[in-house]
Amino acid sequence: MKQKKELILPIATFLVVGVILSGLYIIVSKQAAMQNRERYRYIAASQSNMIRDCIDTVLARAYTLSALVFDNDGSTTFFDRQAERIYQETKNDTGISLKNIAIAPDGVVEKVYPASGNEALIGFNFMDASKPGNEEAIAAYQKGSLVITNPFDLVQGGTGLAGRLPVFLPAGGEKEAFWGLVTVTMDFHELIDTINLRNLSNMGINYELWYKNDNGERTSMAASERMPIDPVSYEFSIDNLTWFLDVSPADGWIDYEETAVVFCVIFAVALLIALLLLNRGQIKKANEKLQRLAHLDSLTSCYSRHYVNTILLNQRNGSWNDPDSRYSLAIIDIDNFKSINDSYGHDTGDRAIIAIAQVLEDNSKHANGDCVIRHGGDEFVLLFNDVTNERFISKLASIVSDVRKIRFPDVPDMRLSVSIGGEYYSDPETSLYYNMIRRADEKLYQAKENGRDQYVI
Predict the structure, then answer these.
(1) How far apart are CA 109 and CA 125, in angstroms?
(2) Which helix (H) or strand (E) holds 190?
(3) What is the pTM of this model?
(4) Angle formed by the axes of helices 346-362 and 389-404, nearest 10°
(5) Which residues of 163-189 are buried (b: 16+ CB within 10 A; e: fewer)?
(6) What is the per-residue pLDDT across 326-377, written as a single tens digit (0 to 9) for each?
(7) Parallel, antiparallel or unpaired: strands 418-423 and 379-385
(8) pLDDT tops 70 at residue 175
């Protein structure tokens, strides 16, 4: 039971230190994770701005076409000489190829550049609601502003992203009449290459660029080989479009190896502190044991008189150092010890002292704080801690009786007895050691005067 109690503090310390350090690590980790997510949000925002700026730069050519139509009062004669210039400038400025540039008076395509590969577009009516893919063109007419399509598969192959811009010309007075549409279609894959979105994978970042279709379903436009897990999602707008860019670390937000190492270190630190406490407790016990050994009588192994004076007592006033001590005291003196030494020799006298000391030890309860002290020569002091008056009397009587029973086979005619003076604890003020020892000594002399081999309290 005592060993279990000694383990309580180290185990409790191990648990408390482990919990505190783990809690601190979790708090720091959460803060670091929040900062890391903010960093990834900034990366997503930067990439999204690049996408938006690049698309805006390319589709600005639709406004160039619109201005040319306006400047030419609706004539399309400029187209053949200006289209190639617009195409090359776009390629030079952005690195993105235009799939086609088209003008559509009344919504019907009249001219397209480059002509090769786009022949099927001539005569196409963007205002025909029955034709698939015309929603954006009709929406542009209704809104009177540029409308951008989400990426779509081109008939000639590849993926395009187009801007549909309505053109209105003066119709007299302040009125304007719908002239038709100008459209610019870019190569979407070249857009992704130009903004170097795939480079995110080389940076250890998983990504996905996506939007919600008319049915609210997620539609992916570009993604890394591995989809982002628990991503930071950045929402951004390009005119009428709303896109999302999701990013997350390829290795995940949690570095499990680092976490395992940190928790191993926390475990080791908590264990080390617990072991130090345990070791300190063992050292303390060892020191106490050594201290006790230093205060033991060499013949009997009982405590020495020095132990009482230096450990148990406050020598200035005779009070006990432990305020919880409630010692009742008895002085035990071996009867006629001088004649034993004279008759049987000092070796036999030492054997008698040892045997009587053992009787005293057998009648004390060390777990309760009882102490057997060799006070000097043939005299002992026995301290009973927190003992009832009945047990005190019973123990003194038992000691007297047990000493009478001591026999030595090689000295069969030797008889031993003791006289005892006892002083029972009453209260802290009157039960000071020096007062108790004086009164017990008086009782001892009474026991001797009454014929020895007895106790008086």
Answers:
(1) 6
(2) helix 188-194
(3) 0.59
(4) 150
(5) bbbbbbeeeeeeeeebbbbbbbbbbbb
(6) 999 999 999 999 999 999 999 999 999 999 999 999 999 877 889 999 998 8
(7) unpaired
(8) no
